[in-house]
Amino acid sequence: MRRARLARLFWIGAAALLCVAALVALFALLHGSFSNTDGRILLTLGALFLAGSAGIAGYALVERGTIRWLGRAAVATAPLWFAMLAAGIWTDSFGHAVATALMLLVAELVATTDVLMLRDRRFVPLVAATAGALGLTTALVLVAIWVEHGSGLARAIGAFAILTALGYFLTPVLQRFSAEPKGASPAVTVLGALNGVELVASRGAVDGVEVDVSPAPGEHLYLRRV
Fold first, then answer.
1. How many Å apart are CA 30 and CA 24, to the nearest integer?
2. Measuring CA to CA, which residue among 25, 81, 20 is closest to residue 53?
3. What is the tens place of the pLDDT at every residue in 135-160?
4. DSSP codes joined into one string, the chain
5. CA 200 to CA 164: how far, in whole Å?
6. In sequence order, what are the residues at sequence separation of 6 or more whose Cβ sits closer than 8 angstroms to the Cβ of residue 180?
7. What tens digit of pLDDT does each residue of 165-200 get?
8. Would you state the torsion angle of the CA atoms of residues 78, 135, 95, 16, taken in this order, to the nearest 10 degrees?
9. Of 107, 116, 109, which is closest to residue 135 (Cα–Cα)?
10. pLDDT score for 23
């Protein structure tokens, strides 16, 4: 499935979830009461949105060929986390296991989308540092869930969570800031040459030539005589 079609399906699904959530909220408002069932439906839709987002992001990583193990892990575990969250929502048993599922689901979503946002390899260290801060945040939260609670642990969680958020939002901002200015000649990389004709890679048009079709995942470009 191509990325464009995958993204379209995701946004259609997200729109459908938002419509259902709005309908539930409107029904509760017009009915004059907001029951526990209404709340559970909204929470379930929220969990489905998180799990679906993580799964789609993981699938996109696999399709792109970037950190495939992370993508496969997200695709495989997102339905499990959703099932655990849904079970906790509908049985009112928000125990350690449900809290763990929520934390791991959020961590997967942040990790996969942060990698997907990376377009400039100069910012790989920033993404790696963000992943490290996210890993520490996740580990400390799991310790707080299963082992102990304390002000010192809460401060450490808050500090690493802030660093994670900082790195996550800096990635697209810095990439946007460092992008080629409009009208400037794009940087090119020469991939090969044949009889004075060069095959180059570029993020923009080179000498006014636009490429309409990009290689599909797994395809490579070659020079050959015709």
1. 10
2. 81
3. 999 999 999 998 877 778 989 999 99
4. --HHHHHHHHHHHHHHHHHHHHHHHHHHHHHT---HHHHHHHHHHHHHHHHHHHHHHHHHHHHHTSSHHHHHHHHHHHHHHHHHHHHHHHHT---HHHHHHHHHHHHHHHHHHHHHH---GGGHHHHHHHHHHHHHHHHHHHHHHHT---HHHHHHHHHHHHHHHHHHHHHHHHHHHTSPPTTSPPPEEEEEEETTEEEEEESS-BTTB--S-PPPTT--------
5. 36
6. 186, 187, 203, 204
7. 999 999 988 888 876 555 555 566 777 776 667 777
8. -30
9. 107
10. 73
Token pair belonging to 146: 């299963």
φ, ψ of residue 55 to 5 degrees: the values are -65, -40
Structure tokens at 197: 């004709």
Cα dihedral 98, 103, 106, 111, rounded to 10, equals -140
Retrieve residue 79's tokens. 């339905």
Residue 84 above 90 pLDDT? yes
C-beta of residue 143 within 8 angstroms of C-beta of residue 96: no
Residue type, 24: V
Q: Token pair 């449900």 is at which residue?
A: 98
| Residues 144 and 153 sit within 8 Å (Cβ to Cβ) | yes
